[in-house]
Design brief:
- The chain is mainly beta.
- It contains one helix and 24 strands.
- It has one helix at residues 2-22; strands spanning 53-67, 95-99, 104-110, 118-126, 140-149, 153-161, 187-198, 203-212, 227-229, 233-242, 248-249, 256-257, 259-272, 280-296, 307-318, 330-331, 339-340, 342-355, 358-369, 379-393, 398-412, 415-416, 419-420, 426-440.
- β7 and β8 form a beta hairpin.
Amino acid sequence: MKKVFGFLAAGLMLASPVMAQDAPTYNCDFQPSCEVAPGLYGKISEPVTSKFKLSIGGFVKLDYAYNSVNFGNSIPARAPAQVPKSSSLQGQADQSVFTARQSRLWFKVAGPTFLGAKTNALIEADFYGAGSSNEAADFRLRHAYGSLDWKNTQILFGQTSDIFGPAVASTVDFSQGAPFGTPNQPRVPQLRVTQKVDLNADNALKLVLGLQNPPQDNIAPTAGSATYGTAVNVAGQAMFVSKALGVAPGFYGMAMNSLTAGVFGLWGSEKVSIPATGDKSVDSWGYGFYTFVPVLKSKDGKSRAMTMSFEGQIYMAANMAFNSATAGSIVSLADGNPTGAKGYGLYGQVIFYPIQDLGFTAGYERRNASNYASYGNNFEKSNTNIFANVAYDLNAAVRVAVEYQNLNTQYGHVVDGTGTLAGLSGTGTANVGRFALYYFF
């Protein structure tokens, strides 16, 4: 019996390092007995395996927003571009909204090499699918692409952000400025090639050329109003990138970016369905200028303390409501002579980090129609967004952020032979206060 107990004790001593290594750990700061009754999720721990190297990440985000007007409940984590008129019932009602639907999950894969290129893939989704409520939220595909990456060349295929309009406003709200002059949406299926051309040790050109799905084709054509794509959109970028000014924080303070300046553009074509005259082709096009400037550079390329950056963009576009570059898609349908809705956008943003964990962001952006006479009644002349936010990282996982936005829509009307169409112009203004909690993993 003594020998049996001796063997058991020796076995336990040998196993103890392994048991200690495999034993789960619990955060018991607020519940000292949590390891005794861990509940539904406490003891679930399984390894993730894949054919290739797989990593998982994302974030949990809780949004609270107070809106001085009622935007409805369809997109509570963000404010749409069109602010209800101050004279409307929605414009005279306020709104408080909670949601966690912006929470996100992604999977990254690093696979085998091919002809000297690294192969990678990413799938990312959030909960902004067709479901219109928090509890009935649906999983929605955001990004799904594979890439072959050589030293200076990348081939990417799948779905990711539109090549047109590289700027992304660093707002706490989910729209991130897309309807106000930073039309970085939608995410569309595409095939793109990116080529880096080294000029010297510090300077390079970044050239992007891609074929994109015409986003209009997800709109069912109806008589006199809808459009549908007939040709793929061709889009590209040509950027000068320099290390001369060091790096400074970009979007969300997470990316450290170098001095960048260059142009971008898009061209496509679509059909307009008009019963009286038949289908007519209308071109979609746009061009613009983008820049990112490290005003105060990072001391070591990693620290955000005492850094500042400026990001700016300006563009001209026609018939590009599919990515919010223009407020409308097709106008002047009533007279059987459809034209592209033309407009411009401009944007500027400053990010400042006095210390590593505290960031301040402020920006202004505007989307404005340019061919007022082509529009029908009650159209959007301009949409502006003035925003400022503060974010503080409690640790590597938890971030707290607050934001203020002033949103404005200027409505217009047309003048015909009988005079001004009364009662159609107006202004919609919204003041938005937002609070958000993030958990990055």
